[in-house]
Amino acid sequence: MLIQLTSKRALGILHELEELHLIKVIKENIATVQPKLSDKYRGIISKEDGQRLNDHIKQMRSEWTDI
Question: Could you read off the pLDDT of 6-44 as tens digits, one per residue?
């Protein structure tokens, strides 16, 4: 379970709960690792769909430069 504290008082309450043996704090200050977006979305669309999307984007960009 991951909990984000929004108040310093909450940390004190958690430590009090631990002292009462109601909870156990496993780790403190855990930094979450976010995956790169390229890794997260790799393989979501097919290569063909990706190529069509790239072609469409190129077309739209050229239309903007023609204005």
Answer: 888 998 999 999 999 999 988 766 666 788 888 888 889
- Rg of the chain over Cα atoms, rounded to whole angstroms, equals 24
Tokens read off for 46: 């097919």
User: Would you state the structure tokens that stand for residue 47, as one six-digit string?
Assistant: 């290569």
How far is Cα 35 from Cα 41, in angstroms, rounded to an integer?
10
Q: Confirm whether pTM is higher than 0.70.
A: no
Amino acid 60 reads M
Tokens of 19: 């002292």
Contact of 16 with 10, CB cutoff 8 Å: no
